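Lecture notes, unit on protein representations.

Consider one protein chain, 118 amino acids long.
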Amino acid sequence: HPRLWGAFPRVLGHYVRDTNLLPLEEAIRKMTSLSARRYGLARRGEVHVGYHADLVLFDPARVIDAATFDKPQQPAHGIDAVWVNGVLAYENGQPTGARAGGFVARGERAPASADAAF
């Protein structure tokens, strides 16, 4: 399914940039800190000393999904680099071969709130 690799790039490229339905900062918050808090993922979703360095470097002017139903594992355009736990995992359209990720156990679920609505 195209959403396999294209869900977040689609939001950033189409809904944020092309249609202005969502501000960039709000989209990023929903994809990162709000999701991490909702699923109880400690020290993830924000950039702070002592947090896991899971980062994506992208160009807001170029980011868009490329996946299709026929080819769902197509890298998105405009994603320049990805770091997982501080280790470069993706660059120049290719995985680096680094395997810094691992199983992330869900912590105690954060309390539901109106702020957690997508």
